[in-house]
Amino acid sequence: MIESHTRKAKFMELKPYCCSAKENDYIEVTEWSNGIGFDVNINDQKHISLTWGQYEALQVLVNYKE
Question: Taking the domains of the chain in order of start, what are their residue ranges?
Fold first, then answer.
């Protein structure tokens, strides 16, 4: 059986947000069709896949203050 899905994706240029970004560098986030996570692509060179729980844990670690 073949299934067809529409996935939510968001795209933006990195230059306004990243001091090391070059012209036309970009980031794209695409939600998984099952809704439990997302893929991040940066310039087709870096790829990260996270569940929403992994993302939440990452936010806790990034924002942790001693």
Answer: 9-63
